[in-house]
Amino acid sequence: MSILVDRSTRVIVQGITGKEGSYHATACREYGTRVLGGVTPGKGGTVHEGFPVWDSVRDAVDAVHPDVSLIFVPPAFAADAILEAADAGIELIVCITEGIPVQDMMRVRRILDIRNEEGETVRLIGPNCPGIITPDGAKIGIMPGYIHKRGKVGVVSRSGTLTYEAVWQLTQLGLGESTCVGIGGDPVRGLNFLDVLALFEKDPETEAIVMIGEIGGDDEERAAAFARAHMTKPVIGFIAGLTAPPGRRMGHAGAIVSGGKGSARDKMKALESYGIIVVDNPSVIGKTVAETLSKGDYRRVPSCH
Amino acid sequence: MNIHEYQAKELFRSYGVAVPSGVVVDSPEEARRLISEKSGIFSGNSSVYAVKAQIHAGGRGKAGGVKIAKNVSDIPGFVESLLGKTLVTHQTGPEGRLVRKVWIEEGAQIAREYYLSLVLDRSSRRISILASTEGGMEIEEVSAAHPEKILTLAVDPEMGCKSFVGRRVASFLGLPVTLFGQFSTLLANLYRFFVETDCMMVEINPLIQTGDGRLLALDGKVSFDDNALYRQEKVLALRDLFEENELEIEASKHRLNYVKLDGSIACMVNGAGLAMATMDVIALAGGTPANFLDVGGGASKETVEQAFRILLGDPEVKGIFVNIFGGIVRCERIAGGIIAAAKDVKLHVPLVVRLQGTNAKEGREMLRESGLDLQVAEELFEGAQKIVQAVKGAK
């Protein structure tokens, strides 16, 4: 088991004839992902790097019934691409694109929420994220596949290379990962820490979860409160940005301490108060997971307080 | 991206949000000339003027950046005292900001003061309205002492800022019913401005009610979404490079994401999250980070070389820590880039390189055999400890 994606997942790529889309569609296929083709408006009917190309997501859905669309469309057109995928009935959309205007994402997210409330299922991962991978199953994103190893730790993160750092440690220690989800560094996004924690809690293969957060917002705190109330599996947390000064944006559009809220220190304290095992040195994330699991019958007691 | 008060007020006016009339000057001579010509705001019989220093930071009043001229003849003197002055406020940092422009506006007769702002609220994922009767005070202070005096209202993007929203806010603020219509229009215009120009935050503090029943924005603070500037040409034209750090401007030209901090150990990292974590680990090892620098995924020779030049452009830097997690890009290519760049820029401070990920062993081997004066590390914390030690040893 794993969450969201596995060996059987059928994938198309929006923006497949672009430089990034083309490179990563090929890399995902090499990893073993079932990449069935892609979409570039105006290039329908052609074949690119061995992939069939369609003019629209609707055409791709009619032809190959994909489960997932992986998006590499430039920021100015990415919101439209996400909505196109949602409108064509794609249930999981993974948007890698960095630099989408936040008000575009605000409107996209509102529409996705309405569709979910009306009974459809449409999940978005990202934007501005590395994607999702179930080791030895499906790599749907830009992460280096080989650093992963199938195993028992779920990983959810707002960051890219920092996630690879944690994954590498888990792999080196032989623990491996069940699924790794990069939820992205933007202030408005699709799946959040909380949603992914809930999925990992239900996944029998996942025994522990690594949650990698950063400064800005309060999503990590909300997720921790959820974990306290509903989860039995241990969650190991790290928050980047202890040394980031307030008011300065640290690369990610979402990584900013504003109005005295969202500092790393406050987040760490809040996480600890909800029973998350917080590490302050990212070099020991893997080691801490190993120690936690070796304690044997570790079981959190969910509490509603 | 932020703009000055006078620019915000010009934008407000063009969106139908009333502001006091005023003029921006960059010399006392210009102020004298406008006054003697009785041009614009100096043509009428206004007797009171506000003379306000223009910098991208709040807290100007307390720092002496705002003067009230009770006589038009006082204005040039005030302009002269403000121009060229370095204002230090709670938002500028200890180095302060140099005043290059001064905004002069007609004084207004204030009956009541309010606080009004719109902000892109990530928790509700909507544009939120914040309103308070405590105009003129810092909203953080009001929030701490009297949270009940702040109304927060998230606007459904599918619906927009309709009249009933305006009436609800007006009612909370205790505005006279005769001003409800005027307020709702102002709020709807401000919302339209927020959406059409891709704002992240708009703050009017204070919004005033004049003796004769007009609502005026007496101050204006606006920040825009950097990701949307590609479609906001008019906004981009308002960018003031003097308000930004020179090294940061240089970095952005090379698509490097750089933020200068005040420590002594520079770092160069691929990825924003890992860059923040690297800064944190430098602090854990007993050092102080000099910057945030994300070189992105590529880390080619050219990128690394530009990054080295920017890091060395900061005179406070006493050592450099390069931390690269090779994923798609293999470590031996990154090592090659570092070696070539380090030779070209002639480093004069200690350098520690930590490579991990794809072909890291080969990359580290190349660095060790390069003949360059550098140390190699395998683990993140080990690398941070090495650079902190090297900087201490070099002193």
Structural account:
The complex is a heterodimer of chains A (305) and B (395). Chain A is an alpha/beta fold and 305 residues long. Chain A folds into two domains: 10-125, Rossmann fold; 143-294, Rossmann fold (3-Layer(aba) Sandwich). Chain A is 34% helix and 21% strand. In chain A, the strands form two sheets. A seven-stranded mixed sheet of chain A has the order 3-4-2-1-5-6-7, with helices on both faces. A seven-stranded mixed sheet of chain A has the order 9-8-11-10-12-13-14, with helices on both faces. Chain A is globular, with a radius of gyration of 19 Å. The two termini of chain A are 31 Å apart. Chain B is an alpha+beta fold. Chain B folds into three domains: 1-20 and 109-244, D-amino Acid Aminotransferase, Chain A, domain 1 (2-Layer Sandwich), CATH 3.30.470.20; 21-107, 2-Layer Sandwich (Dna Ligase, domain 1), CATH 3.30.1490.20; 246-394, Succinyl-CoA synthetase domains (Rossmann fold, 3-Layer(aba) Sandwich). Chain B contains 13 helices and 18 strands. Chain B has helices at 5-14, 28-36, 75-82, 139-145, 163-173, 180-196, 233-236, 246-253, 272-284, 301-312, 331-345, 360-368, 380-394, and strands at 22-25, 49-53, 66-69, 86-87, 97-98, 102-106, 110-121, 126-132, 150-155, 199-210, 215-217, 221-224, 257-260, 265-269, 291-294, 319-326, 351-357, 375-377. In chain B, strands 7, 8, 9, 10, 11 and 12 form a six-stranded antiparallel sheet that branches. In chain B, helix 8 runs antiparallel to helix 10 (301-312), helix 10 (301-312) crosses helix 11 and helix 11 runs parallel beside helix 12. The longest helix of chain B has 17 residues, at 180-196. Chain B is elongated and about 80 Å long. The model of chain B has no long low-confidence stretch (mean pLDDT 92). At the A-B interface, helix 4 and helix 5 of A face helix 9 and helix 13 of B.
Task: Name a few traits of the molecule.
heterodimer, A: 305 residues, Rossmann fold, seven-stranded mixed beta sheet, 34% helix, 21% strand, globular, B: 395 residues, alpha+beta, D-amino Acid Aminotransferase, Chain A, domain 1, 3 domains, six-stranded antiparallel beta sheet, 13 helices, 35% helix, 25% strand, elongated
